[in-house]
């Protein structure tokens, strides 16, 4: 699972949004969830989100990785790594 922490006012978040949609279509075996940090502050705090966008990778309920920032290549690489 990839949890995408975002905010409506965040420019890089808006930039990466279409990329996430492409990844969701490409990696159909991965679940993508989107959380607005302004709407769910407690969830963002629980996952220790300090900047947006932040992508948290979760396997069987445990965090296994994190990517901070709108870096398409790094994000795709991390998704590939976690799928294997």
UniProtKB/TrEMBL annotation:
It is found in: Cytoplasm. One of its GO terms (molecular function) is protein-disulfide reductase activity. It comes from the Eukaryota. Keywords: Cytoplasm, Disulfide bond, Electron transport, Redox-active center, Transport. Disulfide bonds join 10-13. Pfam families: Thioredoxin. InterPro entries: Thioredoxin, Thioredoxin-like_sf, Thioredoxin_CS, Thioredoxin_domain, Thioredoxin_H-type-like. The keyword Nucleotide-binding does not apply. Residues 1-84 form the Thioredoxin domain. One of its GO terms (cellular component) is cytoplasm. PANTHER family: THIOREDOXIN. Belongs to the thioredoxin family. Plant H-type subfamily. This is Thioredoxin H2-1.
